[in-house]
Amino acid sequence: xxTISVETLRSWLDEGxxxxxxxxxxxxxxxxxAIPGSLHIDAYEALRSHDPEALTTLTLPLExxxxxxxxxxxxxxxxAEQFAARGxxxxxxxxxxxxxSLAWNTAEIPLAEQAFQVIQIRRTGKGCLSxxxxxxxxxxxxxxxxxxxxxxDLAAQRGWRITNVLDTHVHADHLSRSRQLxxxxxxxxxxxxxxxxxxxxxxxxxxxxxxxAGLSLTALHTPGHTDESMxxxxxxxxxxxxxxxxxxxxxxxxxxxxxxxxxxxxxxxYQSLHRxxxxxxxxxxxxxxxxxxxxxxxVPLMTTLANIDKQLDLLHATHAEFVKTVLSKLPAxxxxxxxxxxxxEQGQLPDEPIIELEAGANRCAIS
Length: 367
Fold this sequence. Notes:
It is a single chain. 28% of the residues lie in helices and 22% in strands. The protein is α/β, with parallel strands linked by helices. A 7-stranded mixed beta sheet has the order 6-7-8-9-10-11-12, covered by helices on one side. The longest helix is centred in the last third of the chain and has 18 residues, at 259-276.
């Protein structure tokens, strides 16, 4: 039976090739995260029981290749066998949705300021968003969540050399690749000033400004999601908000915190968000995550501070109402988040398979 790697499927989707991607997982798993544009048939139990009729309700065009998908790449092989028996050209995705968590695509941010470019690198299989910012022949990366080579290649394609790497905070839903990227590129690694991380870095503090080939990058301390959380203002018009502020929600305050600590952070988050609201209303907001799979459409996930102010009622709640609402809407914690936090504090990658450790949707926003 033919199989297809995540990288090949990612490339095909990025090229816009005609494909029928068929997800055979149970509905509950599908609802948590899926491949953009995929079809779904809840056939897991039937396939595991070797029911020859498991997929007969799904009609697919014979001339378009099919890629079958399950959780880990086993049940999809059974689905592929049934589709192949119907005369379809079919591939099973190796590693399934666990492996797909490393898939990515990009979009360029349209900017009024022409002095620099921003490329949004979207980990579509996980919802992580990182940013490659380039000016002249230099570049910076914010919140690297993919293999360093991805960023090195994207920079090289544009004639940039990565000189600065930054994280907005210590992540809990995915492994940071920033330390490894800084080591491979020779860049300076900047992290928010804190005592959590146990490896060498250059601390950046509230109000400090870096210069990247003439572009200013100013740090704004916005505690709440974590105590050290930082947003980065690029020039005067673009704000990378990490997990403090998303397009339709705000960061959760409870990860690696006691009940009392979560409440204290919720108060800090209220203050941080109101600090951000003092920025110009046309400030472009670039978040660190999205809660839905990112399509291969090259359309950036972005908005303005004015749009968020209109759409996110929570920003207009009183201080007490804000804290109460945030603490009442906490979703389930990300899978393996305590292990991930420990590794990020140590600056290490794990001995166990990364795709298993990072499996599942990100849950860094309140629901």
